[in-house]
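Usage

Read records sequentially. Each one opens with the input sequence:
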Amino acid sequence: MQHGIHFISGLPRSGSTLFAAILRQNPRFHAMMTSPVGAIYLAMQNALSRKNEAAVFIDEGQKRALLTGVFRSYYHAIGTEKIVFDTNRIWCSKMPALAQLFPAAKVICCVRHLPWIMDSIERLERRNAFDLSGIFGYDAGGTVYTRIGRLAGSDGMVGYALDALREAFYGGHADRLILVTYEALTRDPAGTLAAIYEFIGEAPFAHDFDNVEYSADDFDESLGSPGLHTVRRKVEFIDRPTILPPELFERYENDCFWMNPDLNVHGVPIVRYGV
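and closes with the structure output:
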C-alpha cells in the first residue's frame, strides 16, 4: 500500500458497492464490496486486549504494527502501485485509530434516506421469497414490522451503521469525512466522482457510467440474499413507490441528520444532488 489507503463506509444499501465498482475502472485504484479486513481487525483488537492474559507483554508500538499489518498482509498481493479503498461499516466507529494508523486516509460515507434503505432491504427479501436471509438470522416467521425493527436496532444492520456514522460525524476526526448521498451518486455520477477525486487529492479520471458491473454471487447466496451486491450496468436513479406500510416509512423519515445544515457542526462536506 505504498500509494495509501482510503475507506468506504456509511449506511447499507446506499451505493457503497456501486461506488466501489465505479472506482475499480481506474487502474490506479483497488476497491470492492465489504472486505474481510474489518472483521480481522476486530479479532486482532480482541487478541491485543486484556482478554488475552499475555497482552501485558505487547506495547503500544507493537499494537500499531500488528493492526497496520492486518491491512498490509491482506492487500500485499494487489501490487504496490494501487491506492486501496477498503469497505466496511465499522470504520466510522474506528476514526481515532484510523487517524493514527493512516494519517493521510479519508473516509467516504455513502448515505441514503433511511426509509428507502429499509425499503430496499425489504424489497430484496420479497424478491427472494423462498430463501431465508442471514440478515434476519434465517428467521422464517418474521413480518415486515419485525424485520424493519431488527434492522433499526443498535445492533441491527441499519441501526449500527447509523450510530457509527453519527459517531464519526460528530467526533474529533470529522475533517477526514465526506458524505455522498445515494441520489447524487445515481443521478449525477460524474459530478459526484469529481468531488470525491478532489477530496482525496487525485487527478480526474474518465469513468464510463454506462458500463459499470459488479457482483458477488457466491457471497450473496451464502447469506441467503441473492442480488445483495449486484450492480446494474448503467448508473441511474430508478424512481419507484415504496413497498413499506405508510406508518413504517414515516417512522424513519426524520433520521437523516446530515440533511440539516444546523447539525453539521464540523462542516463535513456532503455531496448532494442539485446542490
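Summary fields computed downstream for this record:
- The radius of gyration is 19 Å.
- Residues 13 and 97 are 26 Å apart (CA to CA).
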